[in-house]
Design goal:
single chain, mainly beta, four-stranded antiparallel β-sheet, globular
């Protein structure tokens, strides 16, 4: 398949170097974004505002954390947003030792392996949805569980077991996405399920109240394969949420979008059986009012006849655009570091786009894309990590934008081997100015203690500093790999 984008290549350049050579371009490029006539969008209510104070909060899953002397029991650390953004307003830790949270702290539970956020009971407060794929179920089997922890004005108040694996190694909760998939007004949870040699994407429908049916319904399944990432979005424009997921196995791989019909049947609305990936993001990248899908770190299926992204050295991002009155599958583009529009140069193993998050930084109706690559080298520092701020100029065009590392001007710290900046990315209006900011994880920072880099929207002021939030600054104990898991 040939992309509609221009495939002109240029000679490889040096890797991202110290002194932040691209930083000035980044600030100017972001601050001067234009929607090309798109009307300004109303700032959306944060989906991760657990105390409903108007500031988005950041949930960091730390599945490798020690809790009560139990190694790798795991917890979720919630960094509170506020007028000064992240890191200045404290944090709280939620684990299975927290009053009202279901389960018991046990070594190896990995509570916090996946974390999502949504108002799951409609009370106006965002809630935590947390996966613990190695948690024992009621029968004592390591089958995995998914818990909902309720937000409130005074913090977190109890929880609810939303899904409980039935068989050993069921791995419930390793992947999560929330949305109203059956369009009944209640939030639902999409998750992974495993049994013997098969794996599936399943949905646990809402409501999440005592006595509500806890059965899950199968969306898609595979033999000797399984899902690797998923995201929710309204890709067919019907007002309800759909599920996009990528899967991989011994002889199959691909990316699929499924929509639930009124009959209860799950139908495929878009499919790319020729490629899989490690990250997905939903956003309106061309500002036409329809949902698009970004597919990160595209890898071709060797069994397929062709691929969307022929040029994928070091990783590529496939952007599939929606169109009014229909679903995905119209114009598309492939973006890599091989072109002059993207900072850095393409080298094998970079994993460009391995993590993705969408945000509309200036509320002009056109989303931008934050792309992380934790395996990217910075100078001679292997796996130091980098992230990009990418924009689209219209359907079918390559994304463009410069790169940031810890050696860029204004970014806290110094790029060191193994920091893995870009291992996770997310967005939210953490300082409450109506413009979304973004956060980037670096779980290898400080000898694998980890940290999160908080970047304010550049329109907040000239060259805003990118500051770090670390377990040491927050007074956390038992943390390991902080920043590897960030909630949407």
């Amino acid at each position: 398949m040939a992309s509609t984008a221009d495939h002109v290549r240029k000679p490889a350049r040096n890797k991202i170097l110290a002194a932040g050579a691209l930083c000035a371009v980044t600030v100017l490029g972001v601050a001067g974004l234009s929607a090309g006539g798109a009307s300004a969008a109303e700032p959306a209510k944060p989906t991760a505002d657990y105390n409903n104070d108007g500031y988005a909060d950041l949930a960091v899953g730390v599945p490798g954390a020690t809790v009560g002397g139990k190694a790798k029991a795991g917890y979720v650390n919630v960094v509170w947003g506020g007028a000064s953004g992240l890191g200045k307003h404290g944090s709280t830790t939620v684990s299975q030792a927290t009053a009202g949270v279901p389960g018991t702290v046990e070594a190896g539970d990995a509570f916090g392996t996946a974390v999502d956020s949504d108002d799951m009971n409609g009370d106006g407060y965002s809630d935590l949805v947390v996966g613990a794929p190695d948690e024992d179920n009621d029968a004592g089997l390591s089958a995995g569980t998914v818990a909902v922890v309720w937000g409130s004005a005074s913090g977190f108040k109890g929880g609810f077991t939303a899904a409980n694996g039935a068989v050993s190694d069921g791995s419930y909760g390793a992947l999560l996405a929330t949305g109203d998939f059956d369009k009944d007004g209640d939030k639902d949870i999409a998750l992974n399920s495993h049994f013997d040699e098969t794996s599936s994407v399943v949905v646990r429908p809402g409501p999440f109240t005592a006595g509500s049916p806890a059965a899950v319904e199968r969306v898609e399944g595979w033999h000797f394969a399984g899902p690797v990432t998923m995201v929710a979005g309204d890709f067919d424009g019907d007002g309800g949420d759909d599920i996009a997921f990528s899967y991989r196995g011994m002889e199959v791989s691909g990316t699929t979008v499924k929509s639930r019909a009124a009959s209860g049947e799950w139908k495929t609305t878009w499919d790319a059986a020729d490629s899989t990936d490690t990250a997905l993001a939903a956003g309106d990248f061309d500002g036409d009012g329809t949902q698009d899908l970004a597919v990160g770190d595209v890898q071709a299926n060797p069994e397929a006849d062709g691929t969307y992204c022929e040029d994928r050295l070091g990783g590529a991002i496939l952007t599939v655009y929606g169109k009014q009155g229909t679903t995905l599958g119209g114009a598309f583009s492939c973006t890599s570091q091989s072109g002059p529009q993207v900072g850095g140069s393409a080298e094998s193993g970079d994993n460009f786009g391995a993590r993705l998050a969408a945000l509309d930084s200036d509320q002009d109706g056109r989303d931008e894309l934050i792309a992380g690559a934790d395996a990217e080298a910075v100078g001679t520092a292997e796996n130091a990590g980098t992230y990009w701020f990418l924009t689209s100029t219209g359907a079918g065009t390559r994304l463009a934008g410069p790169a940031f590392s810890q050696n860029s001007a204004g970014v806290a710290g110094t790029a060191e081997a193994g920091d893995r900046l870009g291992a996770a990315v997310t967005a939210g209006d953490y300082n409450g100015d109506g413009l979304p900011d973004f956060a980037v994880g670096a779980p290898g920072e400080d000898t694998r203690s980890g940290g999160v880099w908080y970047a304010r929207t550049p329109t907040d002021g000239p060259s805003p500093a990118v500051t770090s939030v670390t377990p040491g600054k927050l007074g956390l104990s038992g943390a390991s790999g902080y920043g590897a898991v960030l909630s949407r």
